[in-house]
User: Which sequence fits this backbone?
């Protein structure tokens, strides 16, 4: 079965750029999505089709996808960005999620 | 504003059954595929199933295939998840999710653009 790999945790200082990666075999050939989940809350769609942002998502959040890696970039990271981030792609009709990356804003 | 409200969760015994419901509002329900995604306590997200706009096509995760059945009633703006023969590993918060379809060929591809608040299902004797 298809697997997506994420680092368990990433730390960033406020105001700096956070980079969260998601790896999978030829992931660049599939559409990648990113979701943010804060403690006790439901996930929120941040990025779809590799690079697109839904309305209401700040421009600080951007995505890319090439080769075997999809990347979520958070510019000018704020304390409110502290959350779990999940990537997601598709494999033969099944949605596959990464294991999630906890972003800590120090 | 899109709203998805789940109901029907709770405690169920292994081998029993449970039916989850989800009522949608704030959008044209019949125009969207719908999905269920679950999250075990302290764990990550796991896709469970999704259903075509008219209910004629359904996809299931291997972990629930043959035990769970997803359906919908567009007249009532609702989707359902029939959970049969649950196991301890089915214990999770179940989210009702609107599915934004990008492509349907060869298999549906899209994104999960609106999530309900989730409902807890606990499988235990």
Assistant:
């Amino acid at each position: 079965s298809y697997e997506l790999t994420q680092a368990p945790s990433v730390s960033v200082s406020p105001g700096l750029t956070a980079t969260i990666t998601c790896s999978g075999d030829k992931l660049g050939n599939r559409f990648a999505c990113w979701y943010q989940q804060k403690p006790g809350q439901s996930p929120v769609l941040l990025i779809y089709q590799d690079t697109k942002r839904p309305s209401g998502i700040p421009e600080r959040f951007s995505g890319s996808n090439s080769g075997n890696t999809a990347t979520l970039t958070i510019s000018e990271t704020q304390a409110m960005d502290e959350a779990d981030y999940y990537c997601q792609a598709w494999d033969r009709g099944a949605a596959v999620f990464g294991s999630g990356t906890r972003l800590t804003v120090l | 504003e899109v709203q998805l409200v789940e109901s029907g969760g709770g405690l169920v015994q292994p081998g029993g059954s449970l039916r989850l419901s989800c009522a949608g509002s704030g959008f044209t329900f019949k125009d969207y595929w719908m999905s269920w995604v679950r999250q075990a306590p302290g764990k990550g997200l796991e896709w469970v199933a999704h259903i075509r706009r008219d209910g004629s096509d359904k996809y299931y995760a291997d972990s629930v295939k043959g035990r769970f059945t997803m359906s919908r009633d567009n007249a009532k703006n609702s989707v359902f998840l029939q959970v049969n023969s649950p196991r301890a590993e089915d214990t999770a918060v179940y989210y009702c999710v609107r599915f934004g379809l990008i492509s349907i060929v060869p298999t549906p591809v899209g994104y999960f653009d609106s999530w309900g608040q989730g409902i807890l299902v606990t499988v235990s004797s």
